[in-house]
Amino acid sequence: MKYFFVFDLDGTLLNDAKEMAPEVKAMFDRLKNKGHETFVATGRALEITQPYLDFLGVKDRCILNNGAVIHDLASGENLFEAGIGDADIQATIAYLNEVNVAYSVSTSNALYTTENYELGYYDRFMTMFPEYPLINHQGASLEDIQGKTVYKILAQFDNDKALKTHKAALKTRIQATVTQSMENYLSILPHGITKGGTLKTYLEQRGVPLDRLVVFGDNDNDAEMLALSQHSYAMINGSETAKAAATHVTRFDNNHLGVIDMVSHYEDK
Prior knowledge:
Order of helices and strands: EHHEHEEEHEEHEHEHEEHEHEHEH
CATH architecture of the largest domain: 3-Layer(aba) Sandwich
Structural class: alpha/beta
Shape: globular
Radius of gyration: 18 Å
Largest sheet: 8 strands, mixed
CATH class of the largest domain: Alpha Beta
Helix content: 25-40%
Number of domains: 2
Distance between the termini: 10 Å
């Protein structure tokens, strides 16, 4: 069979300005035309992933929220979803409130953020994609998310030192998965959920052998995914954890189309 290509978004297909170059779209088209499969696996929720999927012409399935969701774009349904347990939600939010750390909560119907959450990331999204609605309830309380499936809690830090300190503290308080997904952001996910674990299960269900998997990522949350394949590439701009998990490191970073440089070696195989 041809290759099954899996791509992260932030720090991988997207440049630092969160833009996707036309060359990336052309790469996806070439791979599809040559019989390869392409797949996106991201820490983002669907609402802030959809514009990029539409740009790429991806219309089948993708992994969202760092593995908490496999979404079928054709039907609009989740083929798989996992939520953070109530005890872990309460303990996480109680701790983050106690230490005055801003956070957002991704649920099955909307985004909820604390009053002190820096919304620059989402403001930039709404400026870039005004035609894509993004529902955000700023200043929401724990009571507002009760009864909803919580896929991810994203804690926001000022610096890497603070992130590492609170990451260690959270791991002693909750059973949920705690991982870094972007610079200065910590993702709290359902217990046992990782991008790599969800991807592995999906590939087994599809009958895709791991020796045909080509995967690209850049951060700690991509490590399990990168470790699945002998054809795995951590971005040169990526974290040390991602690089240690991958079998290769790209020559160029996400701002200089590092993915395309590596994919070119597989296109005609």
